Automatic annotation (TrEMBL), chains A, B:
Residues 51-360 form the AB hydrolase-1 domain. GO terms for molecular function: homoserine O-acetyltransferase activity. It comes from Stutzerimonas nitrititolerans. This is Homoserine O-succinyltransferase. Belongs to the AB hydrolase superfamily. MetX family. Pathway: Amino-acid biosynthesis; L-methionine biosynthesis via de novo pathway; O-succinyl-L-homoserine from L-homoserine: step 1/1. The active site is at S157 (nucleophile), D323, H356. The gene is metXS.
Length: 379, 379
């Protein structure tokens, strides 16, 4: 917990909730009659309403991106290193909006919400949502907040995909698109890792076809395994090597299946167990599906340049050298398509050993370049 | 099934069994009082007994490396592309011995064997075996077969680790060591993937603490997940992309959790399910542990050159460009240590898109180079 709020923090913040009664038609063909989105804002909307920045979260993210909910919080929001007074997304200049996506498990309508038609939790009956659906729901939130056009839409990983989709779905409503550690679509290997995570959850006997909440249980083992395999893909081989190497948990080897021999095993188990107690299994499935389905060029004969032709935004694309989940080559696919479509694009490849997770880490060169781009945005 | 046996096949072969009544003391401190090894041989041992080649298998391998057990076999042994008359390991020149390792599930004593002390299957009570233990048990098999010195010990992946260990444990009994797609020890990331596989098995309710056989069940889900995650690491990102890309299983998307949307999902599930019906869960755990523990340099203050100083063999080290499980850099660690220790070493890095699995695939340049090295071995 902070004994005092740091000077470059947005300080104490409170989430708000927006209700939407107008039905939302989803890509899967189903309709959400009624839903809510939980969100936070940092900074002040200017009189011209021209300084709003939307933050889109990744697989396990949520609305609480910066600041503290109380003085008892152990940690600030998940992107506090990048959002605050004088930071890359400078709250002295920008009005920042950060939401939990539809299908999430942190306060927006999702699988653990009550289905008004049955008065039971949706569970696995919650419709599959896509990046396009999220962007449509975010546009409605912008309407509620009186934001006609975002100064920027910003996100890392799956969040970067939402930023890209904004430039395609609502070209006139976004001036800058910042896509960090992202990709224009998943590779077969990316899908394969997601599929392992899904099978771990689906095959857990406590999953109960997605209606575990009604049974009063949690598919803890499945979620733990899903997170463990995901976590390996977030870190680089080098980062894991530097952090753990072959370090042992105790002084000697135990030669059995139940002991933890290596520190990396203990770290992974802890990450998996911690995650399984705080995240919803159906939301995890939904998020991996949204990743798998994202492929905006599919509707344009796989021509990403043609897909982005109508975009009016300027683009900033950032990648990290050791990211093997979405490698620099995947960001370059976006950059090449943008150049072919004659868009303004800045590309930064940051030399960083941390792998995919680098986008969450305060790496000086990354923060400096990111701040440089954001500071040049006119508001 | 073969309608006729190909001319370059070793033909119809039959496994044999060797019983060992002399107790084997294991690295874990426990002792196996009595055990058997199942093995096959191809070619003829010459009068000087100087032409014997030992094949060491990888994680899910076994003794049946070449030829057919019957005319009804759908496929030949797992390394048939490399073993046979005129092939890389030429059975016109060499007497080839291939065994199933201790702890295996294909006929050698392992977790599914009866524990003579309880008259029940060992299950999880089977002792943890290491690469060193395997090499010791293989040396006893050599004694039984009257082979004082191997012309070569050859293996891929975990098999390559056994070949390396032979050169360290029995320097006078091996003239050539061929280590393909291998590594001198696992990285933290390698261990992490193994740990996910183990947790998938250990947390399967049907595992029953490793005594599932007595319960008449199989931890099928755990084994399936373990194989799925393993399989991703055997293929390169490129190979998966070329083989499946984002190809769909049916013509349109289903937008649910139970349908198979992408071909790569269907492939992985098939691989996992097929494996879970033929492999023993306790053996899988043992094999991953043997991989984790392998680290011959640990006893020499992490100095691999010092570890290999007493070796008398010549070495052939082969790696594959897109192998990210044991990348070329891992093979180069072995090569650099061997050069520092002033050993004779040939190193080949084969340009191949198939990833780690390349060592099992008949890639022309690989076969040619491998055959070239083997043909120069005097017998």
């Amino acid at each position: 917990m902070p004994t005092e709020i740091p000077a470059d923090s947005v300080g104490l913040v409170s989430p708000q909730i927006a209700h939407f009664a107008e039905p939302l038609v989803l890509a899967c063909g189903r309709t959400l009659a009624d839903y809510q989105l939980i969100y936070e804002t940092y900074g002040e909307l200017n009189a011209a309403r021209s300084n709003a920045v939307l933050i889109c979260h990744a697989l396990s993210g949520h609305h609480h991106a910066a600041g503290y909910h109380s003085m008892d919080d152990r940690k600030p929001g998940w992107w506090d290193s990048c959002i605050g007074p004088g930071k890359a997304i400078d709250t002295n200049r920008f009005f920042v909006v950060s939401l939990n996506n539809l299908g999430g498990c942190n306060g927006s309508t999702g699988p653990s919400s009550l289905n008004p038609q049955t008065n039971k939790p949706y569970g696995a009956d919650f419709p599959v949502v896509t990046v396009e659906d999220w962007v449509n729901s975010q546009a409605r939130l912008a309407d509620v907040l009186g934001i006609e056009q975002w100064a920027a839409v910003v996100g890392g990983s799956l969040g970067g995909m939402q930023a890209l989709q904004w430039s395609i779905s609502y070209p006139e409503r976004i001036r800058h698109c910042v896509a960090i550690a992202s990709a224009p679509k998943l590779s077969a290997q990316n899908i394969a890792f997601n599929e392992v995570a899904r099978q771990a959850i689906l095959s857990d006997p406590e999953f109960h076809g997605g209606h575990f909440q009604e049974q009063g249980v949690i598919p803890r083992r499945g979620l733990m395994l899903a997170r463990m395999v995901g976590h390996i893909t977030y870190l680089s081989d080098d980062a894991m090597g530097t952090k753990f190497g072959r370090g042992l948990k105790s002084e000697k080897l135990n030669y059995d299946f139940n002991s933890v021999e290596f520190q990396v095993e203990s770290y992974l188990r802890y990450q998996g167990e911690e995650f399984s107690s705080r995240f919803d299994a159906n939301t995890y499935l939904l998020m991996t599906k949204a990743l798998d389905y994202f492929d905006p060029a599919a509707a344009h004969e796989d021509d990403l340049a043609a897909t982005l032709a109508a975009a009016q935004a300027d683009f900033c694309v950032i990648s990290f050298t050791t990211d093997w989940r979405f490698s620099p080559e995947r960001s370059q696919e976006i950059v090449n398509a943008l150049m072919a479509a004659r868009k303004n694009v800045s590309y930064l490849e940051i030399d960083a050993p941390q792998g995919h997770d680098a986008f969450l880490i305060p790496i000086p060169r990354y923060l400096q370049a990111f701040r440089g781009y954001m500071n040049r945005i006119a508001v």
